[in-house]
Amino acid sequence: MELTERTHLAAATKPAATVSTATAPGAPTRATGTKDADGMAVASFILGLLGLLVLNVFLGPIAIALASVALWRGTARRGRAFLGLGLGIADLLVLVAFMQFDSTVSWNF
């Protein structure tokens, strides 16, 4: 075989261009997904805690949704996500209790 035939043969067997999805611009990496899930766990905890005081009709379901997504994505802060889930449920239970007591959709002191 001549040198040019080997070069053409080698060029034909190589893949044209390999682009890794981890190095592509804007492509999410595993670390980014975990950070997002951790942030969602913390946000669900904070919103669930705030929901016990104000706007529990809105903050409770948001805390439940964020905690569920964080747990589904495999957050490293599982305890915080479970607290956010529990507080979100508690927000809705507090709302139902005060609705029964006041016969309204909101509650005040």
UniProtKB/TrEMBL annotation:
Which N-terminal stretch is annotated as signal sequence? none
Q: Which UniProt keywords apply?
A: Membrane, Transmembrane, Transmembrane helix
InterPro entries, alphabetized: YqfX-like (IPR055338)
Report what the protein is called.
Answer: DUF4190 domain-containing protein
Q: Where would you find the membrane-spanning parts of this chain?
A: 45-69, 81-101
Q: Which domain of life is it from?
A: Bacteria
Q: Where is the composition biased (Low complexity)?
A: 21-32
